[in-house]
Design brief:
With 154 residues, the chain is mainly β. The chain has 1 helix and 9 strands. The strands form 2 sheets. It has a 5-stranded antiparallel beta sheet with strand order 5-6-3-8-9, with no helix packed on it. Strands 1-2-7-4 form a 4-stranded antiparallel beta sheet, with no helix packed on it. A hairpin with a 3-residue loop joins strand 5 and strand 6. The longest helix has 9 residues. It is elongated, with a radius of gyration of 24 Å.
């Protein structure tokens, strides 16, 4: 969003009096973007053994200027990982080549500077080998940003 800069009163007065005013290139003022800006912390880089569970959490922090009225959090798991059971508020699907995805909606308000903790839970299947976890977040109604990727050497 851009704002128009009004000429200063001195410049207007000088122009009105017919005085010479040197031309100076002034930077254009740009208003700071407003709104929520959600960022997600990194997952601990631990790898469960095949058949084992991964139970950690991430912290979602609002670094924006306005509250986020709801949070969308997405987790994607490669073929050797799976979600152990459905969690309320999450929709599950398979995308691409056997990538499992959970898209979770949390009905919570995160004020600027405040944080929210979201659980991340999955199991390593017997076929797990060098799997990865991708996750991202965003305000409800917006696509989650691309988050970190943790490669687990299962």
């Amino acid at each position: 969003m851009r704002q128009r800069i009004r000429p200063s009163a001195a410049l207007v007065a000088a122009a009105g009096l017919g005085l010479a005013v040197p031309a100076v290139a002034a930077p254009v003022a740009v208003a700071e973007e407003t709104g929520p800006a959600l960022v997600v912390s990194a997952l601990p880089d631990t790898a469960p053994a095949p058949g084992g569970m991964y139970e950690e959490s991430v912290t979602i922090t609002n670094k924006g200027t306005e509250a986020s009225d709801g949070v969308t959090f997405r987790v994607r798991l490669t073929r050797g990982l799976d979600f152990p059971e459905p969690v309320e508020g999450c929709a599950y699907s398979t995308v691409g080549h056997q990538v499992r995805q959970a898209l979770c909606e949390y009905d919570t308000v995160i004020e600027p500077g405040a944080s929210f903790t979201a659980p991340v839970r999955f199991k390593a299947l017997s076929k797990a080998l060098m799997e990865s976890v991708e996750y991202g977040t965003g305000p409800t109604g917006e696509a989650p940003g691309e988050g970190s990727t943790t490669v687990t050497g299962v």
